Amino acid sequence: MLIQRTPKQKTRGAALPLTALLVCTGLAWPALAQTTAPQTTSSQLATGAKLFAANCASCHRADGSGGMKFGNAVSADLRAPGLETTYKSSDKLLLRAILEAKDEDGDRLDQPMPAWKGRLTTADAEAIIAYLHTLHS
Ligand code: HEC
């Protein structure tokens, strides 16, 4: 019994600093992400704004508010919080919506919303998504 307890206590003693280290790293990580994110997105945002103006504004309006009629379809409002709610705050689902013209459930979005795959790269679409996040109703 005594032989079994001693190593257990030793392990616990060694695990404590390790746990503290993991907690500290965990706390430091979001702060690190916050300081680096604006740098990566500032040029991405400029690209996204340009691509949006060139490819999307004609149907979704310059401010992203949409509401233009195309036969029975109406162009979507691409501003927050509506769009983010529809796509469950998932950039992955939004990426699919843009590249494959599929809604949040995977059904084809109404025409004339194009599937942009082949005309826009994934990086292009991601830049547009970063820009869309800055639009608010
Ligand atoms: C020719 C017109 C047209 C162009 C150009 C266009 N869209 Fe659309 N888009 C639409 C229409 C119409 C809908 C609504 C489809 C529906 O409700 O099923 C739509 C829907 C969407 C949706 C889904 C929104 C939702 O609420 O489900 C997204 C995201 C979107 N467009 C993004 C874009 C982006 C980004 C671009 C530019 C790269 C773009 N669209 C260019 C017409 C267009």
Automatic annotation (TrEMBL):
Pfam families with a match to the protein in the record: Cytochrom_C
InterPro entries per record: Cyt_c-like_dom, Cyt_c-like_dom_sf, Cyt_C_IC, Cytochrome_c-type_DH
Keywords, in A-Z order: Electron transport, Heme, Iron, Metal-binding, Respiratory chain, Signal, Transport
Cofactors named for this entry: heme c
Official protein name in the record: Cytochrome c domain-containing protein
Stretch forming the signal peptide: 1-33
Organism: Acidocella aquatica
Domain Cytochrome c: 43-136
